[in-house]
Amino acid sequence: MTQLTNHHSKLFQTMEDRHSVKQYEKGFDISEQEKKQMLTAATLAPSAWNLQHWKFLVIEAEEKKEQLLPIAYNQSQVVESSFTVAVLGDLEANKNAEAVYQTAVENRLMPEEVKNTLVGQINGAYERGGTFARDAAFLNASLAAMNIMLAAKGLGYDTCPIGGFNGAEFVKAFHVPERYVPVMLITVGKAAKPAYPSSRFSLEDVVVKNSF
Ligand SMILES: Cc1cc2nc3c(=O)[nH]c(=O)nc-3n(C[C@H](O)[C@H](O)[C@H](O)COP(=O)(O)O)c2cc1C
């Protein structure tokens, strides 16, 4: 297993310590304040044009966790963890542009005409159709998801990203509006058992310099 050497850095330590935990202390309560810290960390992720293509559906009520269980193919972590965050991607993130840039204009950080040009470019990209909106939703929401996992670890909790769930059923059961696409579920809680060991390819295997 590759070791990041600089353990003086808390961030590096946190990245190395994060692993996908699948068994949690059932009933462990994480405070609202800590939940907010994790979700705030999620919102600090970068996003294209700062459109913040994400929505976080926090599933914490027992009956909602039970409802999620079969949708997540009976992965018991969704009922045993403290809560699950469904990270949703925004398929119409261009609709955020006006609000995002208006603040900059009001704070005199951006001239009105620059805002109008940007909003025009963004709407243009979204109006061209194809896979653009869906790609952008997955790409940007995934960066927020990573922040949730690292923030949870930083607070002493563990997580597991889950792609194994039925998206169509999820949308139906949790009344997800058409505007959003489920990207991944993240279970969060206090580990009852450590993660299964995992390995990584070496840098020699994954790094290419300058060009293939
Ligand atoms: C997009 C994505 C989907 C995943 N789906 C599942 C899943 O459905 N169930 C599960 O137990 N783990 C799932 N995982 C966890 C991976 O198996 C795990 O991240 C990988 O084996 C590396 O191990 P580590 O996270 O413990 O370092 C998923 C991870 C990612 C990034």
From TrEMBL:
InterPro entries for the chain: Nitroreductase, Nitroreductase-like
UniProt cross-references to PANTHER family, sorted A to Z: NAD(P)H NITROREDUCTASE YDGI-RELATED, NAD(P)H NITROREDUCTASE YODC-RELATED
UniProt-recorded name of the protein: Nitroreductase
Alphabetical UniProt keywords: Oxidoreductase
Gene3D superfamilies: NADH Oxidase
Domain (Nitroreductase) ranges: 16-190
Family: Belongs to the nitroreductase family.
One GO molecular-function entry: oxidoreductase activity
SUPFAM superfamilies noted in UniProt: FMN-dependent nitroreductase-like
